[in-house]
Amino acid sequence: MPPLAEQHTRMRGFPAAFTVLRLPTPLKMSYEAAKKRAESYTKIVEELPHMRRETVHLVRQAVSEGRHTYVLDNNRSEGNAPLTVQALTEDARRVDHRAAAGHPRAREGLYLGAAQGADSEA
């Protein structure tokens, strides 16, 4: 699957009043390899800074357009979905609020969720 920003470009924008971003298995890595790499699911096994930047950028863009925005993560992306969500939340909070202040819903909270799937231990 292509990177998030490329998927968004192919869609030509956000097609609905809300958007859901599903964080992918690392690029060029099979599902099984990602699962094995992440196992124990207790820590970040590898930060994916490009994925994080794209995610935060798309969240910022969607929120600035007044869209409810949801980010779904799983342990295969970086090894521990809750820790990835925590890092994304911290990155998203660094938004320049002066730029976002023009939209009435720009300061609404973001829901960044960690999906617990069959491959998670907890």
Structure characterization notes:
By secondary structure, the chain is α/β, with parallel strands linked by helices. The chain has one domain (4-114). Helix content is 43%, strand content 12%. The protein has helices at 4-11, 31-38, 49-64, 75-78, 81-93, 97-100; strands at residues 18-22, 68-73, 111-114. Helix 3 (49-64) crosses helix 5. The longest helix has 16 residues, at 49-64. The two termini are 27 Å apart.
Please describe the topology of this protein.
Blueprint: H1 4-11, E1 18-22, H2 31-38, H3 49-64, E2 68-73, H4 75-78, H5 81-93, H6 97-100, E3 111-114
Parallel strand pairs: 1-2, 2-3
Helix pairs in contact: 3-5
Summarize the structure.
This protein has six helices and three strands; from the N terminus they run αβααβαααβ.
Which sequence of SSEs, written as H and E, runs from N to C? Answer: HEHHEHHHE
Task: State the end-to-end distance.
Answer: 27 Å
Helix count from the secondary structure assignment: 6
Class by SSE composition: alpha/beta
Which bin fits the share of residues in helices?
A: 40-55%
Largest beta-sheet details? 3 strands, parallel
State mean pLDDT (0 to 100 scale): 79
Radius of gyration equals 15 Å
- Give the total of domains: 1
Strand order, biggest sheet? 1-2-3
Low-confidence stretches: 105-122
Strand content: 5-15%
Overall geometry: globular
Q: Could you tell me the number of beta strands?
A: 3
